[in-house]
Design a protein that fits this description.
Keywords: ATP-binding, Cytoplasm, Nucleotide-binding, Nucleotidyltransferase, Transferase, tRNA processing. The chain has 206 residues and is α+β, with helices and mostly antiparallel strands. It contains seven helices and nine strands, in the order αββαβαβαβαβαβββα.
Length: 206
């Protein structure tokens, strides 16, 4: 399916707790609504993912963090403003009990605010999504919709074709007490250990 022409159809599927393959700002993702326990459970099962590992959540605007009971302090907001929108996922504290199915007892969640217009348009309609890379755990991420189909076949509800995606996964960082630590190297490079002053007057490119 082509992206723009099928966003409404994808929206309807996701609202029903469906899941599918969507070209994100980095790689193809296996996406579902972050507020659907059914979709989240299905994604874990399809990817054969370790149930103890949380999923990264994509949001369309920073204030969406509040939907998860996440309210960053001033230092953290400075870091987020420097990194977002962009290919960086940020680990933030979340100890809200009703989101256990997302944080998996880690009491943290990783969030990313992407730049991709079609993705933002979709989330503005249905809200935040989970979007791990479209591959079973331990396999190489799918760089085409065809490769994703080879992994999942008809076990997902839709495939959107966005051509070949060659980006690295998002860089994963943790922010705590004004310190920024890289947990996973990825698409955006910056010092492994930084503090909030590194981000105060700098805008990192997407």
């Amino acid at each position: 399916m082509k992206i723009e022409k099928n966003l409404k159809k994808v929206e309807r599927i996701l609202r029903r707790g469906g899941v599918g393959i969507f070209p994100t700002d980095t790689l193809y993702g296996l996406i579902g609504s972050a507020f659907s326990k059914k979709a989240v459970r299905r994604i874990y099962q399809l990817r054969k993912r370790n149930f103890k590992k949380p999923l990264i959540i994509l949001i369309s605007k920073r204030k969406d963090l509040g939907l998860f009971g996440v309210h960053p302090d001033k230092q953290t907001r400075t870091v987020l403003d420097a990194l977002w929108p962009g290919k960086v996922s940020v680990i933030l504290p979340c100890n809200v009990k009703r989101f256990f199915y997302l944080h998996r007892a880690t009491n943290t969640l990783a969030f990313r605010l992407p730049r991709k217009k079609a993705l933002l348009k979709l989330m503005n309609k249905i809200g935040p999504i989970v979007a791990p890379s479209a591959n079973p755990q331990g396999k190489a991420p799918a760089v085409t919709a065809q490769k994703a189909f080879g992994y999942f076949g008809d076990r997902v509800d839709f495939y959107l074709n966005g051509g070949t995606l060659k980006s690295k996964p998002s860089t994963l960082v943790a922010v705590r007490n004004g310190r920024v630590t890289v947990k996973r190297k990825g698409a955006l490079k910056f010092p492994k250990r930084s503090n909030v002053s590194t981000f105060q007057y700098k805008r990192f490119p997407a």
